[in-house]
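Write out the 3D structure for:
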Amino acid sequence: MITARAAATFDPVGRSVATARAFVRDTLQGWGYTDVVDDAVVLTSELVTNAVVHAGTTADVLCLRTEEGVRVEVSDHYPEREIPLQTTGLDFGSPDREGGRGLLLCAALASRWGVEYSPTHKHVWFQLDLPDRPVGIRSAGPLLPVGLLPVTDERVRVAVVQIDSAGSIAAWNDDASYLFGHTAEQVTGKQFTDFTAWPQTPGTNTGIADALRLSRWEGSYGIRAADGRTIQVYGSHLRVRDTGGEPSTVCLLVRDYERAVLQSPVRTPVSDANTESRTTDPFEVFIGSPAPDDLDGLLQRTVERARDMLDADAAFLLLATDDETELEVRATTGLPSARQRFARVPVEAGTGRYGSARMPAVHEDLDAVPGAVPLLGDTGMRSVVTVPLKVEGRLTGSLGVAAEAAGRYSNEEALRLQFAADRIALAVESARLGELERLRRGSLSFLVEASDLLAGTLDRDQTLALMAQMTVPTLATWCAVYTIADQSSDPFLSYVLHEDEELIDGLKALLSKISPPDPVPTPGARIWSAPSEAAHEAALRTSMRSIGLGDPGALGAGIRTTLATAAAVGGETVVLPLVARNRVIGMLTLGKPSDDHFRQEILELAEDLSRRAALALDNARLYSERMAISQSLQRSLLPPGLPDVPNVEIEVIYRAAGEGNEVGGDFYDVFPIRDGAYGFAIGDVCGTGPEAAAVTGLARHALRLLAREGFGGPAVLERLNAAILDEGARSRFLTLLYGELWPQEDGSALLKVVCAGHPLPLRLRQDGSVEAAAEPQPLLGVIEDLELYEQTVTLDPGDVLLCVTDGVTERREGTRMLGDDGLADVLANCTGLTAGAVAARILRAVERFAAEPASDDMAILAMRVPEPQATP
């Protein structure tokens, strides 16, 4: 049953692909179908690309919501398509080629899909089913001996926070103030999301807004404390209604390592005496039923059951990387999980069986062998047993338990733990592969969006900002971009961003005081310890200066900023080179808060992003350099300025068509020839852009030289015509209006004008009449033997002479054109205006004539003889 629908049509242009992705993403998120958003966006991107880019037609996208999931349909309008005959199989082609992967992705990602053909349409649809996610499961755990109960550091504090229907904090108890440092008055009425640090791994987890809307939810996230630290908490959310019937959410929060206070234990099924033991699943015996449906929940349940099984003080579980050379900490209990999560240790830590994670190992006293288990350094644990997790003989992880007393474990406990590890290894590996697949799908969607954004700009500063904004907070807590101008330059700190805007200035100041990372071209992320060390040293110096001040709240703003910056930068920092065209052009630096580490999947995604970002940044650099050179050369073709002509007002307005062009095929000039005589010209070279601009430079300089040599108007233009023809294949025909101006003692102005194929100059008299001030003659650059003549025009006081290029008269809106008559009508309404006001009114009329930007160059030259001032 279809419960909602949304449809849109996209034009056959490249930007429509990004618009279609945004349409599908916004639609599905609005429906609450966040679980399938990434897959739907990837499939839509491919199918719309096929329609608007390859088929070259509009694309119709229809989203249908059902109770089971979502169906997306994409249609093109390719005319006279041959309908394929039905065959026994469908050839998808090579998956490595650039095009034609839409159906291949449908087969890989969609629950169901299909193609329907007609002579004028190709209709592709795919169905994505929603995963089953039980909500609101409640259960009770068994009785445990007192010795097995979790140990807390002090009195357990449970923060109670109530969130209203708008997501604002409505209640905040004393324990919340104690744990996080914010008073109730400081947070009441503010958005709860302003204080949460939610997991941002692409393709995994739901958002905090989604969690607050569920009837019941449990899980881990972070709360930003008043001192800038992020405190990991375990939360239990319950959706309720207040006395007015409005929905709200009650959140109970404890420190993450005290999660047992809130975490709902899973009820173990009561055994049936009549059920044979062979029907019992060993996995469910160890984990409990139902098993968590997410990897983090499964791993956390595993370490807690392992700890209880061997009466341990702590337990930990590590997963192997793809190359099986390192193990990554994914779950702990009884250990500072915030510090250890995603930390890495080598699989082969030393010689012998006790140095390899591939074999079970028992350490009776870690004090006797310091460093034997790096994960347990400085934790107070003395004895430990570790066993491998293996699937079909391949190492997939390691499970360990530890105790504070020495000599607690022997080979017997190792066998029991190995038996449990064998029971859960396959389930853990299956959940890990599922998470990896979701991560890869999310990463693909992330990179598609990132590539689209980076390709959409050639501005260097905007590219730097996009690089940082795409990484924070999705990949890292903070980001810094260093750029290198050339091989002889040192790296320069160009952009800094932190997920907390209040920490950006402190972070920038800290990074400015330390030497930048070395520009090593080796691909991949490498650890950079300098920011963390500098932050810790600054925090230490600040703490020493603050001794004796009493209440930490009395610390100055500078000291609080230093401490907050130290907490924000105190975790792992990695540097990725930005390499483009075999040259290191900068470094992308990513950082985590105190004692936090990066996952390998995130680093691989960041490396992929850095390659795309480096090419976009280098393209922006090249574009900026070429634009600067082009504009400098173009400015050299413009007249240096307009001379002051006695008793004559002169105004010029020039607009070159095309982005970044300051000079095109149209040109103008006004220059002194000799005492009392001035030359003026306005012309139009065939075409626009740099090629036409080269001819304008030739024409303008030739006019000045010939006029100052004493040649009259016809002789000047005839010699310019010969110079243009001498250019051979590079020559272009030219329309030109050239004249000489002599201001007269009686207040008038005498003009001698030659109009060589150019729009005729228009004369506006004081009575509002408009007439042509010259006759048309042949244009330049076409025939060799020209016979031109000049005409004399006298401008009386109050008269205006208007000269324009055909970009003005040929301004179009559909089939309409401004034309000579339209220009004359506009000029007739300009009586009494100054030359500048006349030129401005003509330009305004041209711009308003059509909605689209002008596609041709335009030049407007207005000359006016002012009326004499009345004497009092």
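The two ends are 90 Å apart (CA to CA).
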